[in-house]
Amino acid sequence: AGRLVKPLQNNDNEPKDFYYGIDKLIERDNHQIKVSFIESRMSSKILSKKIDIFLKRVINRIFRFKFSEPRIKLVKNEINASDLVISFTDSGSLSLGKLKNIFSPKTILIGGFHGLSDAILDVHPVFRKWYKLKIHKSLLNLDHIFFFGEKDRQNCIKLFGLNENKTSLFRHGVDTSFWCPNKNIKQENHILSIGSDPRRDYKTLILSQNQYKVKILTKINLKSFSHFKHFSIMKGSFHNKGITNLELNNMYNSASLIVVPIKDVFQPSGYSVTLQALACGKTVILPDFKGLWDRDSFKHLKNCVLYKPEDPQNLGEMITYVMENNELKKQIGENARALAVEKFGLERTYIDLIKLTKINKTDN
Length: 364
Fold this sequence. Notes:
Layout: H1 22-28, H2 47-63, H3 69-73, H4 76-80, E1 84-87, H5 90-98, E2 108-113, H6 119-122, H7 125-140, E3 144-147, H8 150-160, E4 167-169, E5 191-194, H9 202-208, E6 214-217, E7 231-233, H10 245-254, E8 257-259, H11 271-279, E9 284-287, E10 305-307, H12 312-323, H13 326-343, H14 346-357
Parallel strand pairs: 1-2, 2-3, 3-4, 5-6, 5-8, 6-7, 8-9, 9-10
């Protein structure tokens, strides 16, 4: 709920991954449900509010905080006019909880989190106790809290003393009709890695290789590794609209391997890239890290390849082993596509969204 930024569109050139099941919800109710979107990065024409947003952004960058109250205040009226508000970003969710008192008591506030467990460790030790308290108070003010990874959920329940019944798991799925193998794309002999999440571990990937060419699409500053000649930074950024989803699809299909390097964190980092690549029938190499979001589904050397997190030598060994065994790589890719279709389609996201719409108000 909130300000309508853009309508849902039936466009074969765009995947439906990040509608989070809302398109199916609207179809199910014959468009009787009114759904709109809040753009969390929107600005204001009012100078004082623009200054507030700017200062908050500077503070967040310096101290690595996740609150963004000035932006949420911009859509206060839209929130108060809504029966249910669901935030799919960590900063938006924390801000909803912190600002609860300015919203209508009738509006149900639901916050989603991609990596809350590790948020406190991001800030300077001096501020951690205070920051933990601020997060705790915000969480108490939300009517429901959902997480994209079970390990992150369980750790946050302990870390913040949450009522487990007030939490749930939201399982991300991908559009397997859009993300699919494309035999018309010529496969090149290189490794592809994509993502700008701070949990990405490009250091381990870069140090693992002196044999195969690595292409990385990211906004993360990797200038300190510029003397390593076996990797290159691809021009363009998905978030800055430098590339389209179709181009991204072609990147997956043209690569020999997809490596999703992640630090050993609780955050379920890398799930969208991993699932998109699996759906494209690619061999995906990712770490067996603490936040691996569906451990039961991932089978080493069957539908993916797992390596020891933050271990360049082990990652390098896994890459070499698969690159030198084309038949194994082909089989893993086929199994990866089958896994994506069977387990990671959009239906599971829709099911979890329906559960969220049935949440009632809580007394905090």
